[in-house]
Amino acid sequence: MRTKSLTILVTAVAATGLVLTGCSSDGGDSPSRSGATAELRVVGQPFTTERYGVGLPQDTPYCEQVNAAIQKMIDEGVWQEKLDAEMEGVEYTPNAETNPPTDFETCAAAGNAGLVTPDKLTIGIKFDQPKLGFKEGNEYTGFDVDVATYVAGELGFSPDQIVWTEAVSSQRETLLQNHQVDMIFATYSITPARAEKVQFAGPYFIAGQDLLVRADDTSITGPESLNGGKRLCSVSGSTPAQNIKDNYASDVQLIEQRTYSECVQTLIAGQIDAVTTDDIILAGLAAQASQG
Known about the structure:
Number of strands: 14
Radius of gyration: 19 Å
Distance between the termini: 19 Å
CATH architecture of the largest domain: 3-Layer(aba) Sandwich
Number of helices: 8
Low-confidence stretches: 1-38
């Protein structure tokens, strides 16, 4: 079975966001728009903010220490250094008014939860988000990985004592509640509903929500224009798409995929009208795809 290769190239950046062009070739099982070049663009300015927190079990003993480690990483300049390194060559500039974060979550009293594995720190990350949490072979890279590794070091764990575990959006609360991981760094937005089930430290980054659309679709100018039954893709267990349905476009059709790269493929194929997620995630996806 042949797989279809997808290439997305960053061609312009303006105040309105990223502009991406893509082409599909080599044939395969994924649908395409007759092999034509597809140009994609991000619509407008970010319309919400997402505070990426460190997910922890409610009975964790580590919350205050994680907050202190993130603050130290920022104060020492390591936070900026790592972010700049990850974003090198990527057409994306984080909002300097909100980053680095200055207002951390208040921790509950320290609990007595033990480690998943003695003398190891089991950390959940995304495996499919370039520049944030990405697995290639036995290598784990991205800003989430950088922050997690620094925090682990402040907690007394060397890199070889970290066990990396995939934490897809729909499983994050379950992984923490069942003590399958000790903590999660996985573009995990802090929300009141989630905070009822797990504890959060941080945030360590604040992103903005955007829409990715085909450039030839002029009907979508912002989240409100998704009314009328437009098809919007996001990943299972994530919040951006539901945010649009709840606050901007009540009759938008929500389409779920396991990963955002699958959302991008269906957008280029013409099966959906828009993809929504955070701006830094879109930038990472664009960077990966531009490398072929």
